[in-house]
Amino acid sequence: VRDCIQKTLTEWSSKIGQDQNQETLEVLECTVAQALEKINPEERDELKVSAKLFIVGSNSSSIRDAVDLACSALGVAQLDSVIIAPPPVEDGINLSLEYLQPYWKELESLVKNKKIVAIGTSDLDKTQLEQLYLWAQVKPSSNQVNLASCCVMPPDLTAFAKECDIQLLTHNDPKELLCEASFQEVLQESIPNTRAKEWIPLWLLRYSVIVKSRGIIKSKGYIIQAKRNVS
């Protein structure tokens, strides 16, 4: 992720030149056009567009921004599936249903507005997944389990998922895919006059475009949003 961000920022910075005073900007839209392939509408039915969303900040409205930007970047009206990684909680605090609810409500709204077809979760144990399932109007279709935390799926989680028709998937993402300090460091290295310490990452979305009939990845990438926090 860090390498992708650094390469994009460096290439973007070299193209805009020095005539733009980045110190005064509230928004920097850093895109390398040739690195992003929009989906041909004629091929849309043959492709599955899935995403995993990592919330870095604690604002549930970030979800709508992330989905809208992903749809716009890929040239599609909706995403086939979105998995949300639990937003960060303070050390010593367990992830609760109350903490997840505002994020899930935002996802449910996007399903009802036909921006997403299916929604899923990541790293929930059996109790957390059951609580979410019983409360949610739009039920989770999948739950990712980290390979680092278990080499065998917990039997209680497997039984519950089978009973409720929830697909269990595996992943090996680190607990924190991109921390604030790492983002600011790569920003400073790539665009030195940006006042990197003022920029806070809000969310990171990883997308994959898969050819359904062949099960191969046609394209994949990251989209990240950060805000400038000027005190």
TrEMBL record:
Its annotated pathway reads: Sulfur metabolism; glutathione biosynthesis; glutathione from L-cysteine and L-glutamate: step 1/2
The record's Gene Ontology cellular component field reads: glutamate-cysteine ligase complex
**InterPro entries (UniProt xref):** Gclm, NAD(P)_OxRdtase_dom_sf, NADP_OxRdtase_dom
One Pfam family named in its UniProt record: Aldo_ket_red
GO biological process: one example:
response to oxidative stress
Which GO molecular function terms does the record list?
A: enzyme regulator activity; glutamate-cysteine ligase catalytic subunit binding; ligase activity
The residues covered by the NADP-dependent oxidoreductase domain are 31-169
Key word Acetylation present in the record? yes
The organism sits in which domain of life? Eukaryota
- UniProt keyword terms in alphabetical order: Acetylation, Glutathione biosynthesis, Ligase
Q: Which PANTHER family does the record match to this protein?
A: GLUTAMATE CYSTEINE LIGASE REGULATORY SUBUNIT, GLUTAMATE--CYSTEINE LIGASE REGULATORY SUBUNIT
* Subunit structure, as described in the record: Heterodimer of a catalytic heavy chain and a regulatory light chain.
Family recorded in the similarity comment: Belongs to the aldo/keto reductase family. Glutamate--cysteine ligase light chain subfamily.
Name this polypeptide is given: Glutamate--cysteine ligase regulatory subunit
Ranked from the top, the taxonomy reads:
Eukaryota, Metazoa, Chordata, Craniata, Vertebrata
Tell me the name of the encoding gene: Gclm
